[in-house]
Amino acid sequence: MHMNSLAALALVAPASALLRFGCSQLVVERLDPLVNPGSNPSPHLHQIIGGDAFNVTMDAEAGDIAEKAACTTCQFTEDFSNYWTAVLFFKARNGTYQRVPQIPNVGFEGQTGGMTVYYMQDGLANYEQTSKVTAFKTGFRMLVGEAAYRTKEQANRFRQITYTCLQDMGTRFPESMDFPKEPCPAGIMANVRFPTCWDGKNLDSPDHMSHMSYPELGTFESGGPCPESHPVRVPQLMYETIWDTSKYNDPELWPEDGSQPFVWSMDDTTGFGSHGDYMFGWKDDSLQRAMDSPCYVNCPTLKTQSVEEMNKCSVPNTVDENFDGWLDALPGGRTGEKA
Ligand SMILES: *[C@@H]1O[C@H](CO)[C@@H](O)[C@H](O)[C@H]1NC(C)=O
Ligand SMILES: *[C@@H]1O[C@H](CO)[C@@H](O)[C@H](O)[C@H]1NC(C)=O
After folding, report:
1. Which one of 90, 253, 256, 326 would you pick to mutate in the ligand 2 pocket, going by the greatest count of ligand atoms within 8 A of its CB?
2. How far does the signal peptide extend, from start to end residue (predicted)?
């Protein structure tokens, strides 16, 4: 019965949606309305993209961000979600830090900083994209990764939070769980993939993670089933952030002890603390509509805006601090010394 209805659905409506789009920088600042709501500043620096309703507090009382936002830095104009990660710094031999610039993916030229965002029904290599997914609901939010992790054993809790050492802008493998150990000619791409099974009830949870789960068997890519506790299969959300580390590739600039010189804003030199935050903010049913329509990357059911329009949307930095130039410490006072 179940199989029959699925087969019938596949015959009637081949739903193949994979959204891949660019979003320019909205702001870089020390706020984290998911993990540290109300705290200005939050402990470490973030880079944020998406709708301009981004703020220090974004709880239910602050309202639906898709209604509050007036613009978005994303290519699809119905997407007022906010997406953020930590910020990458280079640490010089003399102990000072410089923020590493972000650059867009191939095909998104002109976009200022930001990221590439994906919503997938099946693994990236599956051009059919036939598995049904349920879009996130208004007020939904989640976190993946743990900023305090510094070992592979810890980071194994998460799947697919990785780095790609870009030999050129088209490099896509291999991926590593820790920072690349050698200079990467075209930069370092940080990849964050979120879990794909939702408990179907909670828009958030105390750790911002336990309302989500990985598939019970296999993986999202292999079509693994969701566990009974988290039965609702949602799109796989993925971020790609390209950090242009190319100007730091001179071996003379790298540490003399042979270690690599990059450090996340939460003072992580391992790379195992990488994390991504998500606040859903698609207008009305636009995400479900897009996921139910046959489209691969270019989705005519969604309205798009130009790169110029994307770049125009921003919010002022509400935390009064400088993080450009050579810094004596990471924003928030972290000097790289072990506590
Ligand atoms: C951010 O929140 C403050 C109140 O905490 C409010 O005054 C301000 O308008 C909000 N900004 C946006 C862009 O929603
Ligand atoms: C520290 O090192 C960087 C990179 O080599 C250099 O540009 C900067 O001027 C140095 N700062 C000081 C205070 O020496």
Report:
1. 326
2. 1-17
Query: How far, in Å, CA of 229 to CA of 24, rounded?
Result: 36
Q: How far is CA 11 from CA 5, 15, 130, 226, in A?
A: 10, 10, 11, 24
Identify the residue whose C-alpha is closest to ligand 2 atom 12.
94
Nearest residue (CA) to ligand 2, atom 8:
326
Pocket test of ligand 2: the residue of 90, 93, 96 to mutate, having most ligand atoms within 8 Å of its CB, is 96
Q: Tens-digit pLDDT profile for the chain (339 aa)?
A: 333 333 333 333 444 678 999 999 999 999 999 999 999 999 999 999 999 999 999 987 778 999 999 999 999 999 999 999 999 999 999 999 999 999 999 999 999 999 999 999 988 777 677 788 999 999 999 999 999 999 999 999 998 999 999 999 999 999 999 999 999 999 999 999 999 999 999 999 999 999 999 999 988 988 899 999 999 999 999 999 999 999 999 999 999 999 999 999 999 999 999 999 999 999 999 999 999 887 777 788 899 999 999 999 999 999 888 899 999 999 998 655 433
Give all strands of the β-sheet with 212-213 in edge-to-edge order: 212-213, 197-198, 232-233
